Amino acid sequence: MQITFELSLPVLLDVLSLSTALALGLLFMTSKTNNRKANVYLGLFLWSLAIEVYETFVQSLENIELDIIQTSLFTIPFLFFYINQTLNKSFPSKFLLLFIPGLLVNIFITDISFFKNFEYVYNISILLYILKTLKKHQEKVNNFYSDIENKTLSWIKTIVYLFLFFHLLWIVEDLVSLQNEEVIKYFAFVSNLLTFFMIYWIGYNGFSQPEIFMSPLF
Question: What SS3 class is residue 217?
Fold first, then answer.
């Protein structure tokens, strides 16, 4: 099947975001650092995000229908794994259950409206849990490595807040589009633009930020 599309700013942003996320993901997963597991999770997070961008890109093309694996229920759990490993906290095996909903959705769920509603609730719940975890952790280690930790935790919190904003934006988009479908393209452009800058910003911070803890503090 031949796919043709008109080169526009939204399409260019999607292509750059997709290619950059894939390249950065590979670099993170193959880089040798003291906290290599954290980089592997960050790389998987970027690859999962890249598939989400690809899905959006394909859906924006006219007369194109492709079956694509849904990774939107994997992206935030990979982010959670990255944050947990960056802080070098204990890693209970029960955390692996966070991937079960994503697997079940890809195997069984065909109702798109149900999937979207569940996705929003599930991802926002994990993001709020991450913020709660970061707050507790910061309170416990307030007197340890304050300069490095505050810098790193600020960068991590910003990622979480960005994804919370993304989900709220998508919820508003879904509600507004019920009344005016034309407005979808404006929400989509904002989402594409923010995703583009976020991926590059993640790449910069992921490589430049120090690793805070080489061993658990508690």
Answer: coil
Cα 47-119-156 angle, rounded to 5 deg: 55
What's the whole-number average pLDDT of the chain?
Answer: 80
User: What is the tens place of the pLDDT at every residue in 152-167?
Assistant: 678 888 889 999 999 9
User: By the 8 A CB rule, do 79 and 130 touch?
Assistant: yes
Each as own residue / partner, the long-range contacts of residues 56-64 (CB below 8 Å, 24 or more positions apart, any chain) are: 56/14, 56/188, 56/191, 56/192, 57/11, 57/14, 57/15, 57/18, 60/10, 60/11, 60/14, 60/188, 61/3, 61/5, 64/3
Q: Is the pLDDT of residue 12 over 80?
A: yes
Spatial CB neighbours of 72, under 8 Å, sequence gap ≥ 6: 52, 102, 119, 123
